[in-house]
Amino acid sequence: MNESVAASPERGVPGAQQGLLPSGRHRARLRRWRAFKDSAARYGIGTAGVGVVIALGLIFVYLFSEVLPLLTPADVKPLQRYELPVESGAQPVYLSMERYEELGVVFSDQGEVSFFETGSGKVRERIPLPIPEGVEVTAFSHAETGQNLAVYGLSDGRILVGRHTYGLTYPDDRRYIDPGIEYPLGKAPLELDPQGRSLKAVAIQEGNNGFAVAAITADQRLVFSLITTSTNLFTGETTTERDTYTLSAPPDRMRDVLVTEDHRAVYVIGDSGSLHYYDVTHPQQSLLRESRQVVPEGEEITATAFLVGTRSLITGGSDGSLDQWFLARGEDNVRRLVHARSFEDHEAAITTIAPEKSRKGFYAGDASGSLGIHYATSDRTLFLEPVADAPIKAIGVSPVYEALLVATEDGAVRFMGLRNPHPEYSLKALWGQVLYEGYEEPVYKWQSSSASNEFEPKFSLVPLTLGTLKAAFFAMLFAMPLGLMGAIYTAYFMHSSVRGFVKPTVEIMEAMPTVILGFLAGLWLAPFVENHLPAVFSILLLMPLAMILTGLGWSRLPDAIRRRVPAGLEMLVLVPVVILLGWVCVALSPVVELLFFGGNMRQWFTDIGINYDQRNALVVGMAMGFAVIPTIFSIAEDAVFNVPRHLTQGSLALGATAWQTVVGVVLPTASPGMFAAVMMGFGRAVGETMIVLMATGNTPVMDFSLFSGMRTLSANVAVEMPETAVGSTHYRILFLSALVLLVITFIVNTASEIIRQRLRQRYSNL
Q1: Distant-in-sequence, close-in-space partners of 401: CB < 8 Å, separation ≥ 6
Q2: CATH number assigned to the domain covering 461-763
Q3: How would you classify the pairing of strands 210-217 and 199-207?
Q4: Higher confidence at residue 87 or residue 710?
Q5: Which residues, in sequence order, are bridge partners of residue 315?
Q6: Which candidate, 261, 268, 270, places its Cα nearest to that of 287?
Q7: Would you say 498 and 645 are in contact if contact means Cβ atoms under 8 Å apart?
Q8: Less CB within 10 Å around the terminal CB: N or C of the chain?
């Protein structure tokens, strides 16, 4: 009785022990200190959590702020209106503007060129072209926008070619633009039709080998001429050579003609609304390849123009329709006309079409005075509103897309401000199949840049998203079984002394820089896998089988032998088996390749229709799986190891084997943590950059094959962000791809947390 009283803290302690306990004042101080630490931890952890959420929100806000300008609509704002700077009675046939938007140029149907100030309409210089007396202008055309080249067709079958130029000087540190006209084929008109008949329509393009000119004569003959010039280095004299051909006429009456920049195709517009394509690759054997009806019967083609690069032809009809056409090679390797798309109709007949200088967009004016801004690749009509009260005759577009000149039939010119920063963007262009120039069918494709302005950017995010998921899938296919199985064995079966070495070693693997892993994967692993394909597949197939057979054989050995290996160290028996089997597979790889695959397994894949890239998803799966394994292993191992001991001991006490206990008790209890481990590994794989950058070939393809490469969203941002122009559409789409990547990981992590919580609630009562 005395002992129970002495042991009770309620009644105090014997005098000999009173000095060992803290005093009441000291205990109160300890309680206050503990309460302070509890409060500090509670508020500190809470503040840190809120800070993480705020940081994540700020990342979303920043990325969204960079992406938001993609949604900016096109707009046109009137700035000035003045009279057309041409002779009385003349009509404009072509308008243009230099890059500083200070000077405009107008070509008239009377053979006169006027340079004027865009802000006021004041004529800076007026140049009458050297057209002989008694000869009239009967046709006009201009070349691809960037060439600044124009041609007049004359009534005597000759042509006059001029190029408007803008010299730049800085007198008194002020910019001064000196306009002028050059004559690349000479000031004297050049004979085109040997018969000297009036030219009803004419077209010109300058290419790498000179000039190509096509014309329709008054007697409905189609003339095609290739013109080359050469300059004597000593005398400076320029000589002109030309080869002229007469092409067969199409079935209907010809109205207009166009020629491409590569001098390989001639298009003829018929009076009945038809489009005829001539292949003039070999002019002596030119062929009328195809004829297509562009507008409904009873309507006419009233305007045509090439987009930059002259690969796409835009046709405008008297019914207000606008269509895009280009050539694409079929399976028979013959180029044929493809109708790419139709744009939003205007309410009146199309009167003029003006293409942009370096983008696949164009501006269309109609007979009601409405202006339309259209973009081909994104299949968008960005603007369609009335801007004048009279039919629009010509449109001049600034090379930097910040201003417009619009000439109308009533003799007025309107100088307008233009805002059209991102016409390439549309949901269809980013996430849908697009019919690009030269393609027969719509495709998903990412190709953001090229060496020339004629290139059509391809901004589909689908190949990049597929590549991201593909890389993560094959990495998880490699890492998930090894990480989870290794975690289960290490936490539950492995000897504690070995576990104390294995777990830190695997976790240290996570500290290895991924750039080193990518470097090794690209320069060593990829060639090794390519040269030892039979060995790789043999190891993948035989290694699990060998482990199962070794375990089965071990279980059949007498107890006396098995007891020699301490419990938890049985895996040491597998070490020589794994090493020996790996060595045998590699050593016999050439023999297997020779016997079953004709000595070259890669070629065998090609023969059966499977393309094998050296840097492919198989290599990425191994390399990135190696980087992901530590994440999965560490979290899953902690989850399994921390399963309460009373659960496992109770299962064993009821007669369950160790394996039955793992399957029936340990895994359900640890499943929330193991699921979290898998999702963390998946998030790591989705966001990985350097390994996929160095070990995949970095080619955006729509192929989920194990033997092809890919490009991921993260690698694409890393590669292209340094070379893109700040504020461009390409720049903002890269930010959009980063936002897509963040959204993917956010959705995956949120879903995994919800599932983890439900699993935790489900198995919390075990």
Answers
A1: 356, 359, 418, 420, 421
A2: 1.10.3720.10
A3: antiparallel
A4: 710
A5: 304, 323
A6: 268
A7: no
A8: N
Grade residue 14 by pLDDT with cuts at 50, 70 and 90: low
Q: What is the pLDDT of residues 237-250, one digit of tens each?
A: 778 888 999 999 99
Secondary structure (3-state) at 190: strand
Written as six digits, the tokens of 28 are 């109160």
Work out the angle between the directed axes of helices 729-763 and 667-687 (0-180°, nearest 10): 180
Beta strands in 31-157 (DSSP E): 75-83, 92-97, 103-108, 112-117, 123-128, 137-142, 149-154
pLDDT of residue 567: 80
Neighbours of 745 (CB within 10 A): 16
Grouping H, G, I as helix, E, B as strand and the rest as coil, residue 369 is coil
CB atoms within 10 A of CB 292: 16
Structure tokens at 155: 């009534």
Neighbours of 143 (CB within 10 A): 23
Nearest Cα to 273, choosing from 258, 303, 294? 294
Q: Are 326 and 375 in contact (CB under 8 A)?
A: no
| Burial class for 390, CB neighbours closer than 10 Å (0-12, 13-18, 19+) | middle
- What are residue 413's phi and psi, to 5 degrees? -120, 135
| Domain ranges for the chain | 72-125+298-438, 131-293, 461-763
Q: Which of the four pLDDT bands, split at 50, 70 and 90, describes residue 146?
A: confident
Which pair of structure tokens corresponds to residue 521? 């994967």
Residue 725 Rama label (left phi>0; alpha psi -120 to 50; beta)? beta
Complete DSSP assignment for 240-262:
EEEEEEEEPPPSSPEEEEEE-TT
Q: What pLDDT shows up at residue 19?
A: 59
Q: How far is CA 557 from CA 246, 562, 564, 576, in A?
A: 95, 7, 11, 18
Nearest to 142 by CA among 339, 355, 360, 291: 355
What is d(CA 520, CA 690) in angstroms, rounded to the nearest whole number? 11
The count of C-alpha atoms lying within 13 angstroms of the C-alpha of 735, restricted to the half-sphere facing its C-beta, is 20
Confidence of residue 22 (pLDDT cuts 50, 70, 90): confident
| Residue where the block lists tokens 């920043």 | 62
For the purposes of burial, counting CB atoms within 10 Å of the CB of 217, is it exposed (0-12), middle (13-18) or buried (19 or more)? buried
Can you give the length of the chain in residues? 766
CA–CA–CA angle 141, 142, 144 (5° rounding):
140
Q: Counting Cβ atoms within 10 Å, is residue 751 exposed (0-12), middle (13-18) or buried (19+)?
A: exposed
Q: Hey, is 65 helix, strand or coil?
A: helix
SS3 (DSSP) at 683? helix
The per-residue pLDDT of the chain, averaged, comes to 91
Model confidence at 11: pLDDT above 60: no
Among 160, 219, 228, 159, residue whose Cα is nearest residue 195: 219
Report whether 697 contacts 613 (CB < 8 A): yes
**pLDDT exceeds 80 at position 743:** yes
Does residue 432 surpass a pLDDT of 90?
yes
Whether residue 32 is predicted with pLDDT greater than 50 in this model: the reply is yes
Q: What integer pLDDT is reported at residue 15 of this predicted model?
A: 55
**Contact criterion met (CB below 8 Å) for 692 and 471:** yes
Alpha carbon distance 211, 454 (integer Å) = 18
Strands 123-128 and 265-270: unpaired
